[in-house]
Amino acid sequence: MANESATTSASPVTPAMKQHFDAWGYVVVEGLLDESTLGAIEDDYAAALDTFAEDQFAAGQLSSSYAHLPFRQRLMKVIAEGVNWSQHFDISLPHSVIRHDTPIHTSEAVFNVLTHPRLLDAVEAFIGPEILCNPIQHVRIKPPEDLVPLNQRGGLLVRVGWHQDQGVALPEVDQTDMLTVWLAITDATVENGCLCVVPGSHRAGLSPHCPGAGPAGDLQIPSRFVGGRDGAQPIAVPVRRGGALFMHRLTQHASLKNVSSDIRWSFDLRYQPIGQPTGRPAFPGFVARSRAHPETALRDWRTWAQLWADAREHLAERELTPFHRWSKDSKVCA
Ligand SMILES: O=C(O)CCC(=O)C(=O)O
Ligand SMILES: [Fe+2]
Questions:
Q1: How many helices (H) and strands (E) would you count in the chain?
Q2: Where are the domains of the chain?
């Protein structure tokens, strides 16, 4: 599918949705990804899982490749055997150690989601038509949380703690109009671990974050700082498959525990105006749409995949610079 920067008919974001976002720091827009894009993602990940499971079986890490099982059941069997697929399916590099062969899933189907015209129409409604795809991005396929072995409880597999996306980037991002787009590939429900937000918290500034304090060993805002200016309480935000939750970079959010018997699958992406800092300069962003200079938009998924391969090559076996600004030792974390 060619992802031309053509505008689809009406914007998926109504003025009322825009007003809701401005007032509360978040809004859900349903029906952004069509079934053919979603189906292509499912096929792409089923093929990736097939390769992964066969490799792990051949290496003696799995007792079976579970080739007869459908995708979801197959994934759950793999995790139940203690084999972690999360980095193999993610679309970013890790923050800890990067090697020359660290896996990353940069496929055509994923690129077609990142540059999907209807998704970009929605993004345009919030940040304007000069759009950079920010490299802070993940694909999270979360199994029922109790299936996840203790030594694999990272943010790609289990619920994450309260944070603001501005807080998990470097300070250069503070003036950047970074927009988070959290896309549901499966229906996201309270039971399977959808996100929660504090409505209006984007107006109360950046809260302190404590490294390692969250349920996934992630950064977390201490509980006394969670809440809106007017004492607003968190609310859960279910999203139907193909829809997205849009969030301001200062909106406080967390995910719920997946207590269902099935996976919860999402893409979390970020977009921003071209020319502003990304908050993660070691990783590659790209122009997803430009109405002023359409020729600068990236159209070839292989070029995008190569940008990540080049970043990995550059960062491999080096001491990585921090990905955020917080210290465990700060007084608020005591
Ligand atoms: O999907 C999750 O559980 C967390 C996502 C998140 O924090 C984000 O999209 O910014
Ligand atoms: Fe987040």
A1: 7, 9
A2: 20-37+105-318
- Looking at residue 5, its pLDDT comes to 45
Residue 137: pLDDT band (50, 70, 90) is very high
Query: Could you give the CA distance from residue 84 to residue 78 in angstroms, rounded to a whole number?
Result: 8
Ligand 1 atom at minimum distance from 193 CA: 3
Nearest bound ligand to the CA of residue 164: 2
pLDDT of residue 220: 96
Q: How far is CA 258 from CA 75, 83, 154, 264, in A?
A: 15, 19, 14, 7
Pocket test for ligand 1, best of 86, 253, 324 (most atoms within 8 A of CB): 253
Distance between CA 33 and CA 70 in Å, rounded? 22
State in Å: Cα 67 to ligand 2 middle.
34
CB 241 within 8 A of CB 186: yes
Measured from the Cα of 163, ligand 1's closest atom is 7
Q: Quote the tokens at residue 67.
A: 């080739």
Say how many Å lie between the CA of residue 114 and the centre of ligand 1. 16
Going by CATH, does the domain composed of 20-37+105-318 fall within 3.40.50.300?
Answer: no
**302 burial via Cβ count (<10 Å: 0-12, 13-18, 19+):** exposed
pLDDT tens for 139-148 read 999 999 999 9
For residue 160, which ligand has an atom nearest its CA? 1
